[in-house]
Amino acid sequence: FDKVNKPFLPVAAGELGTKAAWALVLGSGFLGPLIVYKLFSPVIFGLYMFGTTIGVLYSVPPFRLKRFPLAAGLTIACVRGFLLNFGVYYAAREALGLGFAWNPSVTFLARFMTVFAAVIAVTKDLPDIEGDKKFAVETLSTRLGVKPIATAATAVLLLNYAGAVATALLAGPGVYNTAFMAGGHALAGLWLALGFRKFQPDSMASIKGYYKRIWDLFYLEYLMYVFI
């Protein structure tokens, strides 16, 4: 599949052999838990192993939950929404010798990125639609079509941005940097909408550009987080 959908990946491009790929995966699978177990608390180790287990269920046969749209969406949303944000925040505070404390900005980020990650889970198959059709792989994109998926994804993200603006405006004084949080998310939503207006579902270049814009906005959120 990757030779058609993602020919630039190391294994598909022939830049990385199968044996070397297996060595990297197995080595990481062994060293990662060992390092976390030795250096962090049982809570961090538990979160790490929870994420690792989800990753195995998502990718490794016979489970391969990524074959099922709902399971794939829940998995990606859980990892990128909850584990990534709360886990990194908790690990950083622990490394600094600080106890865990709820932070409104982190809570907002986790909620916002959970929705964002669910959208990524749905749109991730858009650039792969040619290969998926060729190999009869059923995804939401092949089942419903490119335009409906992109339209629904854009609508959900715009609602997510509207919710972020509302959160900033309705929060009490001093909770967020209100002007930056509201203005930044309004502009990000506008950039998404402008990109969707140019979207051409029959053009692979346009599909890839639209998907790239979603990822650009994903990482932009972490940049904005620093200032909210």
Automatic annotation (TrEMBL):
| InterPro entries the UniProt entry points to | UbiA_prenyltransferase (IPR000537)
Show the Pfam families listed in the entry: UbiA
MF (Gene Ontology): transferase activity, transferring alkyl or aryl (other than methyl) groups
Localization of this protein: Membrane
Q: Which spans are transmembrane here?
A: 35-58, 70-92, 104-123, 144-169, 175-194
- Topology in the lipid bilayer: Multi-pass membrane protein
UniProt keyword annotations, A-Z: Membrane, Transferase, Transmembrane, Transmembrane helix
Kindly report the protein's main subcellular placement as a broad class.
Answer: membrane
Q: Name one GO cellular component term.
A: membrane
Q: What protein family is recorded? A: Belongs to the UbiA prenyltransferase family.
What is this protein identified as?
Answer: Uncharacterized protein
Q: Which species expresses this protein natively?
A: Florenciella parvula
